[in-house]
Amino acid sequence: MARRHVLAAASFLITGELVIVLMSGVIKHLSATMPAEMIVFFRNLFGLVFVLPMAARSGLSELRTRRPLLHLLRAGSGVCAMFGFFYVIARLPLAEATLVKLTTPIFLPLIALAWLGEAIGRMTVVAIGVGLLGVMLILQPGTDAFNPAALAGLGAAAFAALAKVCIRRMADTEPPARVVFYFAVFSTLISALPLLALDVRPPVTAWAWVVLLGALGTTGQLLVTRAYQLATPGEVGPYTYTSVVFASLLGWALWGETLAATVVAGSALVIGAGLLNLHASTGHPPVAAQAPKGAN
User: Fold this and answer.
1) Which of 69, 76, 183, 211 is paired with 163 by a 20 to 30 Å CA distance?
2) Would you say 157 and 81 are in contact if contact means Cβ atoms under 8 Å apart?
3) Tens digit of pLDDT for each residue in 102-154?
C-alpha cells in the first residue's frame, strides 16, 4: 500500500511539474503583449477565486489568525518571487529560467539559519557549495554569455525561500488551509497595487491565454499539493527536477531554444545540490509539505 501511494504521488508530482512548465510557456507568450505586473495580478486573482469557496466551507473560526504580519510577509515575499520568475521567463530560455527557479533550496537553509537559528549540517554546506558552483556555470558571469536578467531570478529564488521560511515560522499555530487563504488574499491585493500606475489594458486576444494561465496554475498547484499529501518530500521530491526536462523540450519545440554545454553541466550540479539538500533536510518536512512549488 505504501509503495502504491508513492507511485501515485510521483505521478501527481510529475504531472504537476508538466502543467507548471506549460504555465511558464503561457507566461512567456503573454509577456510579448502584457506587462509582468498584469500577468502576476491575474495569476493571483485566479488563485483567490479558487481559494474563496474552500474558505467559505471552513468557516470564519478556522480563518482567525494572531499572526497577520507573518502572513503579510509571506505574501509580499511570494509576490516578489513571482515578479522575478516571470521576468526571467520572459528573457531567458525556458529551461534556464526553470533552472534558476530551482536554486531556491540553496537560499532556504541560509535564511532559516539567520532567522530561526536552525543549524546547517555538513551535507547542507556541501549542497550549498555545489549549487553555487552550478549557478556560476549556468550564469557565466564576466563572459559574453552572461545575461543580467538571471540575477532577477536568483533574487526571486531568495524571496521564494523567505516565503517558505515564513511558513515554517508559522507552522506551530497556522494550518495549511489558513496559510493558503491569507496568501491568496494578500498576494492579490499586493499585486493589484502596481496596476494603479499602468494605463494598459490586456489585448482582446490575450484573455483566452489569461484564463488558460489561471487554469494551469491552479491545476498545477492542486497536483503538487496532492503529491505531498500522499508521500513525504524525501520519497517524491526528486521528481521535481523533471521540470527541467519538460522546459527544455517545450523551449526547443516552440522557440527553438537550445542549452549550452556549460548550462547542462551547471544544471547537473544544481539538481545534485537540490537532492543533497533534500536528503539533509528530511527532518524538517513542513517547508516542503506545506509550501509546494506553485504556492508562491
Assistant:
1) 211
2) yes
3) 888 888 888 988 898 888 888 888 888 998 898 888 888 878 878 888 899 99
Domain ranges of the chain: 2-286
d(CA 3, CA 17): 21
CA–CA distances in Å: residue 49 to residues 86, 93, 215, 274: 21, 31, 11, 33
Q: What sign does the CA torsion over 108, 110, 115, 119 have? A: positive
Does residue 97 contact residue 88 with C-beta atoms inside 8 Å? Answer: yes
In this prediction, the residues of the chain whose per-residue pLDDT falls under 50 are 284-295
Distance CA 198, CA 234 (A): 44
- The reported pLDDT for the residue numbered 4 is 73
Prediction pTM value: 0.83
Determine the 3-state secondary structure of 134 from DSSP. Answer: helix
CA atoms within 13 A of residue 54's CA, in its CB half-sphere: 15
